[in-house]
């Protein structure tokens, strides 16, 4: 029995660090820009409101280029090059220091935007992800375009996407039409689109291996695909030799490594002053509602539902008490979590002041695979009725 072909996307942000910095300094758009300086290259705000930027030609030091805009790349500048070397190629280019907090912020933003459309995702670092689109509806091109649009909407940045039957081909594809690219590759395209490329384009063939392949007269992926298996084994060992041949043929069965599903989610609050269970009932109740709303939000964002709801109390003397209960149906609604939390709280003798209140939802399952329908919303009504009675 043959399984249907997979549909894997690789998304990579374009000139990522530089593009994030251009959001802050739009006046630099269209100019060669190199990222890699230190605080000495921080722009200086002038009296007239303009900024003075450091030039590559003035740089002295041993720093390396982390990335460069496509305008700077056109002059020969590339990642991992010494900045002094880059200065010889592009003396007029602007140099900016790295700003990791900003890159991390935009990394989170684009990944969240993508997850809203394609939740099956493998995180491959600050500016790239693999996505499994196999279970999503719609043709690959409009789907990938929607993802690109969502990334731009959330960040103002462009990315390049490749869609192919596996990770190896998707990674090559995302690079074929950078920047702002969208490339769809089928198994039938391997011969025409992949084979003419240098072997280095395969993720996993580094400078060492490509050098040794060149010595065997193998420079293009197509030549590698037609190489003798015995010769490859002899020069690269059994396992890497076999992998080289399979990779050149576009074969790659690796699954996506998605983040481990969370086992539980919890939220808690430590009070500024210890609260009395009766005298501060209103405040405690408001805190509890807040915690339950946040948890429902966490669950819905993670596309999970949980069956076990628990509360945690820390008393003024630091004693900790927990209580939990398990629902018949998994839930992700604030009303259900609140109702269960109150049920748990009723089982705790409340005679001391409280330092902390926490709520936890566990026994989680992915909402998509949960066999139970969402509980009817009337639950909320019922809850308010009961509240009034108490
Ligand atoms: P890349 O995705 O390799 O490069 P890029 O996003 O700058 O450009 P493009 O994808 O359009 O070709 O790397 C992502 C970021 O990682 C890059 O912006 C800076 C950082 N980086 C380094 O710090 N050192 C390096 O050697 C490389 C390659 C990247
Ligand atoms: Mg990139
Ligand atoms: Mg990258």
TrEMBL record:
One GO location term (cellular component): cytosol
Self-association state and partner proteins as the record states: Monomer.
Reactions catalysed: DNA(n) + a 2'-deoxyribonucleoside 5'-triphosphate = DNA(n+1) + diphosphate
Keyword terms, alphabetized: Cytoplasm, DNA damage, DNA repair, DNA replication, DNA-binding, DNA-directed DNA polymerase, Magnesium, Metal-binding, Mutator protein, Nucleotidyltransferase, Transferase
Principal cellular location given in the protein's record: cytoplasm
Secretion signal span: none
Cofactor annotation: Mg(2+)
MF terms in GO: damaged DNA binding; DNA-directed DNA polymerase activity; magnesium ion binding
HAMAP family associated with the record: DNApol_IV
Active site: 128
Coiled coil: none
Record-given protein name: DNA polymerase IV
Presence of the UniProt keyword Nucleotidyltransferase in the record: yes
């Amino acid at each position: 029995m043959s399984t249907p072909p997979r549909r894997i996307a690789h998304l990579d942000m374009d000139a990522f660090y530089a593009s994030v910095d251009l959001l802050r300094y739009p006046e630099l758009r269209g100019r060669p820009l190199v990222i890699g300086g230190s605080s000495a290259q921080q722009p200086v705000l002038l009296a007239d409101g303009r900024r003075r930027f450091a030039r590559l030609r003035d740089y002295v030091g041993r720093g390396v280029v982390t990335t460069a805009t496509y305008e700077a790349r056109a002059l020969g500048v590339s990642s991992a090059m010494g900045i002094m070397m880059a200065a010889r190629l592009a003396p007029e280019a602007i140099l900016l220091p790295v700003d990791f907090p900003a890159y991390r912020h935009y990394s989170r933003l684009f990944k969240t935007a993508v997850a809203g459309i394609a939740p099956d995702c493998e995180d491959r670092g600050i500016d790239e992800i693999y996505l499994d689109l196999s279970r999503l509806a719609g043709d690959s091109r409009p789907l990938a375009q929607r993802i690109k649009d969502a990334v731009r909407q959330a960040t103002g940045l462009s990315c390049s996407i490749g869609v192919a039957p596996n990770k190896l081909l998707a990674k090559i594809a995302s690079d074929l039409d950078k920047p702002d690219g969208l490339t769809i590759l089928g198994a039938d395209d391997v011969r025409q689109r992949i084979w003419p490329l240098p072997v280095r384009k395969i993720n996993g063939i580094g400078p060492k291996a490509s050098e040794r392949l060149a010595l065997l007269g193998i420079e293009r992926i197509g030549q590698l695909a037609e190489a003798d298996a015995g010769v490859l084994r002899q020069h690269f060992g059994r396992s890497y030799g076999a992998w080289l041949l399979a990779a050149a043929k576009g074969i790659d069965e690796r699954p996506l490594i998605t983040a481990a599903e969370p086992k539980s989610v919890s939220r808690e609050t430590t009070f500024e002053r210890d609260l009395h269970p009766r005298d501060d009932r209103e405040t405690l109740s408001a805190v509890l509602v807040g915690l339950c709303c946040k948890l429902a939000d966490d669950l819905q964002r993670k596309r999970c539902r949980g069956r076990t709801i628990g509360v945690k109390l820390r008393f003024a003397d630091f004693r900790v008490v927990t209580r939990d209960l398990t629902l018949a149906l998994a839930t992700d609604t604030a009303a259900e979590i609140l109702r269960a939390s109150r049920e748990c709280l009723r089982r705790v003798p409340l005679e001391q002041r409280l330092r902390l209140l926490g709520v936890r939802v566990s026994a989680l399952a992915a909402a998509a695979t949960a066999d139970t329908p969402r509980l009817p919303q009337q639950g909320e009504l019922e809850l308010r009725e009961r509240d009034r009675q108490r």
